[in-house]
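Purpose: get a first structural picture of the assembly so the mutagenesis plan has something to point at.
Setup: six entries, given in the order below. No constraints added.
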Amino acid sequence: MTAISRYPVPELKDLPEDMRTRILEVQAKAGFVPNVFLTLAHRPAEWRAFMAYHDALLVKDTGSLTKGEREMIIVTTSAANQCLYCVVAHGAILRVYEKKPMIADQVAVNHRKADIPPRQRAMLDFAMQVCTASHTVEEADFAALRAHGFGDEDIWDIAAITAFFGLSNRMANVIGMRPNDEFYLMGRVPKAPKPAA
Amino acid sequence: MTAISRYPVPELKDLPEDMRTRILEVQAKAGFVPNVFLTLAHRPAEWRAFMAYHDALLVKDTGSLTKGEREMIIVTTSAANQCLYCVVAHGAILRVYEKKPMIADQVAVNHRKADIPPRQRAMLDFAMQVCTASHTVEEADFAALRAHGFGDEDIWDIAAITAFFGLSNRMANVIGMRPNDEFYLMGRVPKAPKPAA
Amino acid sequence: MTAISRYPVPELKDLPEDMRTRILEVQAKAGFVPNVFLTLAHRPAEWRAFMAYHDALLVKDTGSLTKGEREMIIVTTSAANQCLYCVVAHGAILRVYEKKPMIADQVAVNHRKADIPPRQRAMLDFAMQVCTASHTVEEADFAALRAHGFGDEDIWDIAAITAFFGLSNRMANVIGMRPNDEFYLMGRVPKAPKPAA
Amino acid sequence: MTAISRYPVPELKDLPEDMRTRILEVQAKAGFVPNVFLTLAHRPAEWRAFMAYHDALLVKDTGSLTKGEREMIIVTTSAANQCLYCVVAHGAILRVYEKKPMIADQVAVNHRKADIPPRQRAMLDFAMQVCTASHTVEEADFAALRAHGFGDEDIWDIAAITAFFGLSNRMANVIGMRPNDEFYLMGRVPKAPKPAA
Amino acid sequence: MTAISRYPVPELKDLPEDMRTRILEVQAKAGFVPNVFLTLAHRPAEWRAFMAYHDALLVKDTGSLTKGEREMIIVTTSAANQCLYCVVAHGAILRVYEKKPMIADQVAVNHRKADIPPRQRAMLDFAMQVCTASHTVEEADFAALRAHGFGDEDIWDIAAITAFFGLSNRMANVIGMRPNDEFYLMGRVPKAPKPAA
Amino acid sequence: MTAISRYPVPELKDLPEDMRTRILEVQAKAGFVPNVFLTLAHRPAEWRAFMAYHDALLVKDTGSLTKGEREMIIVTTSAANQCLYCVVAHGAILRVYEKKPMIADQVAVNHRKADIPPRQRAMLDFAMQVCTASHTVEEADFAALRAHGFGDEDIWDIAAITAFFGLSNRMANVIGMRPNDEFYLMGRVPKAPKPAA
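Result (structure tokens, whole complex):
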């Protein structure tokens, strides 16, 4: 079997209590442990910061971005960064949240061709700008998003999700993080397991 | 005076205790509060994760990378991402740690021309690969670094520092984070103030 | 329902006999008519040339490339060209031929991370070179492929498949060719319908 | 003498009747056999599809694109793909059709500086977009062309010619197809021989 | 000590009279001899042409560009070309002329974030276009600059300064021209020495 | 008739004596005045420096580069910069010097396919590196050229010619410098006029 990381992957039983608890919760919810939880656990301090950042951006009730839209940003920009783990894992979560079995493949290949409304198109255009050329972001880019109803806090969310998964993409690419087989099919057929990070 | 962020910047007195304490510590050490602490404080949960990640990578005693080398990675890759805040702020810290007043300008413009030994050159080449094309990282890249004496944990460090500051660069570029004036001169003249994140 | 092309799509009954016959054959085999057959039928002469070229490259018994390998080349290079139709449709066919439900997503995101042997990796590296920088192809590139056991006729096959689908990708992108919904799931679950062009 | 292809080039006498007939017709008209006819004849089935596609796009009386404009598209995009055969051979044909001895060199180097009216400039801008970034083509690009009087069928023509010669460019680059010496001078001096594919 | 050039560097005493005189003048004014004067002196004829071109563009009283603006163009485009010598040396001169200790670092990292008025932003946008994609310059680009009050002669100046330092950047990069240590600090603290080419 | 420059072009009679003399000499030799002499004459001081630099690089007897090789460098890199004037004018001179009517078109489209020996191929590879990525030049690049028999002075020549024509390309692109009609045919037919700058 192919390794899920170039680095040593700790066993669940050897992890500190807080990490093990979180991982068991995810497992209970998703039916399996997404490999990101195990592979990054090689470095507990970074793991905790990573999860805290993740939760601060994705597990919250403020802002106008839906959970599906956040995943859409992740899949689109992760495809630009050619990160297999994030495209496959978050593609699964996107399908589940949006209840659209084709949306993840669409945004991963070319978000311009996806079946999405102009508001989401503008959101993804901006996410791609942050992903590939953040130094060019200017007031005019904020104005374009406001014209689609995004507030400044939403724009921060789009940028921060893109930036955080840019970090995640780079780590996954370097350590060779392998997506769990379960993700590939999740959300494509009626009775998919529930999503996890 | 030019704003230090496109977003509201909280006042120190309005911040939660843990954030205020950390910021006052930095101020005591550096003589001023680096703007990253105030501008990102607009989002306390993200701020806490950001600082935890930062500390996990930069404030630790393991691995063979020196503090100066970590800053070298930050300045080199932040220049590639055209992030004014990080090039200027971490350029200052790099000068202070390395006690080399010219090194930051050198790696920011072209790390290939910097006055550094082959080991650091290889380190920066890899950091640039992670920064601009992480999807191409393969075993051969690990082998090249090992040939310069870097262990696998060092390679994770190089990648993680690059990835984390890629996040930081994108946020700074989007919110228009302005470097403190103090950073520009720090470490260029004999009696520089002490560095801060 | 979203249109499958920016251009008029002829009805099966209005097509010339030879085209209708071919399309009905495909339908009988696949269970549906892949949209490429209908959307390109807007131009019968080009359709006939397209199908003849397609068959000359993909429906033949010579050479060492397996049917699955040919599809692998198509999916990898079509992803580089961001062609939704070809990635989704040929991704389906690839899964069916290779009986590997994850292979298409892997090569579409980053062929370097796919579960493939070095020979196929070299094949895809060359296909990507032809796709993105064919002017740089030289004798050394032929030598590298020969070292993996590819003969000169195989190399022509790799190049020609890449070149032909580069044509296909551009047409699909311009006319907004939409993949049939059926392709998204095909080959991912045990009882997939049989593949079609 | 330098070979005209990395691959075996069949002799005219060994080719199937239909191919030989077509080639002799071209020879009678042009005074020589353009190398594309001989080098691609290494693969008869592909040759037939190639010529059928070529004729469907270039030998027809419908649409508003003149024969010269079609060649202009070929030369401009083939230069972007750095295909020596197509730039030289179709540059010759372009000069002959347009009776402008300088136009081919102009569009090959920089179509923005060519002595062409705004309509042709818009046509070539779109061809270059299809050539280098077809995934970005959207309704606005169609609108821009319509503003110059191009109908949707003309736009298909521009795209299809670009796409087909993108295939041709890649094949020529890979097999090292050498332009006939005759093409270099054709159409530059008063009494040029007649053009051939 | 690191060499200031890959090539032999002539001694002042061995140079022709006109060259020595010019160099001594610069030394008297700046307090040291900028390395460009010595390293390029390896080729006297080229040195004389280089200095004549330099003076024609930078030592003149016509046009609306200030001396500081000319240096701003040099620093911005030299950073794009990753030329250590020109960024450091002309960064120093820029600081001195503009009496702004932070401006050089700002335009070198990202001219979009520099503390400059819209007129200078437009000037630098155009300089960057000439630096990286001069083949795309068209009437509309002239119009954009005229809207900011630049005359056609100013536009020539912006282009010529960019073009000339593009030459200088390439020579400096190839010969490994090292900036004098003095430049790094010049203009950052109250009593800086006077600038030199 | 199309203008030869966006800027005013002085009449020969209005030019200073030294400039008029040089231009008349060129006219006597070439049979016409190449437009670069007239268009750049809009700025006499820059014109003189330009011609002095030109002569220092191209009119000299030292070094191992032949006159034809110098023109080959100019045509190859000017094509990369998409400069119509330099490709057409120096393409003519290259044909005349080398007595090879096809060489200029070959190197302009793709120098890798030109009929040149490995030594010239290495020379052009390096020229292209200086043209497009001079910041990456390192000792290994010098070693590669030395292996083909180039001395360090030859390498300076290659770099300086590339750098100088990079300047020329940018000026020509910005002012819209038009090549004289005479250049297009020169050197393609037996009795060509003699070359001019």
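The mean pLDDT of chain B is 95.
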